[in-house]
Fold this sequence. Notes:
Layout: E1 17-23, H1 30-38, E2 43-51, H2 57-63, E3 67-71, H3 77-91, E4 100-103, H4 119-123, E5 129-133, H5 145-158, E6 170-172, H6 174-180, H7 189-199, E7 203-208, H8 220-242, H9 249-258, E8 265-266
Parallel strand pairs: 1-2, 1-4, 2-3, 5-7
Antiparallel strand pairs: 4-6, 5-6, 7-8
Helix pairs in contact: 5-7, 5-8, 6-7
The protein binds uridine-5'-diphosphate-glucose (UPG) and 3-phosphoglyceric acid (3PG).
Amino acid sequence: MPPAETSADPHPGSQRVAVVIPAKEEADLVATTVRACRAIPRVDLVVVVDDGSTDGTQDHARAAGAVTVRHSVSRGKASAMETGASVVAMRDYEDGPARLLLFVDADLGDSAAACAELVPPVVDGVADMAIAVPPRQAGAGGSGRVVRAARSAITSATGWSPVAPLSGQRCLSREAYEAAAPLAEGWGVEVGLTIDVLVAGKTVIEVPCDITHRVSGNDTAGRLHRASQYRDVLRAVAGRRLRRVRVPSRVFESAAREQAHFLAYRAWPGPDTPAM
Ligand SMILES: O=c1ccn([C@@H]2O[C@H](COP(=O)(O)OP(=O)(O)O[C@H]3O[C@H](CO)[C@@H](O)[C@H](O)[C@H]3O)[C@@H](O)[C@H]2O)c(=O)[nH]1
Ligand SMILES: O=C(O)[C@H](O)COP(=O)(O)O
């Protein structure tokens, strides 16, 4: 584990951002991704969590200037995100605001620079969590089944109908992150995060970002990958249904009616607000 940061904030009052990159077998792209993230305004810390890779991902990330930690065996994307968020908390300044968390996948390469667009909405208080909507990716082999299942689960629990419900590139405040911790497991993490943050009364927004990432095709590996995504999304949703983690539909009715793509969405003021 890297040593804790000194507690004195050298630039008091400025909101800083930590990038967290979960990475499994990403030796080819992780260094480029790290360099692109380091150039994002307000970023002063990039943490790569090597999730049990065997290809030297951690070494490439460290050589590119990231703080790195490693799971000795893979624990899945959500667990890598949690590890990264803990490392950031240990390095936040005692006398300053907690850093915003910017989660970025390791396979974005240079295009990770476009995730800079996710920071201003959170810094300016427009949203507690900003989510990237990528352009259509060439070669993607899915039929939209996982995306539709994820979207409809979010809509049913919160009224919101996101364009890119599985998108992993997200900037959020520490408070919004805590509202969703512990995160839903594996590939259910994005759906769980979106539902939990909205149920906590927070605001989300989608932002178009010109990013590219490796897509899974229509071969066996791609189909198996999508089957795992589907399974994890259903698990995240089932867990929340069991615990009744949702916004009552009569309460989100008007927010849902007035929503529009790329505008901020808040389902309700939160469960502790009187008269809810
Ligand atoms: O066990 C794992 C598997 C993946 N990763 C990392 O997680 C990120 C996303 O994985 P990837 O294989 O690129 O997934 P995609 O199929 O491209 O995932 C899409 O859908 C996922 C949800 O199902 C989101 O998390 C992604 O952001 C979104 O790009 C990458 O940095 C991986 O290295 C891990 O850390 N551990
Ligand atoms: O990562 C993704 O976006 C999914 O693999 C998409 O799968 P789908 O096309 O079946 O929704």
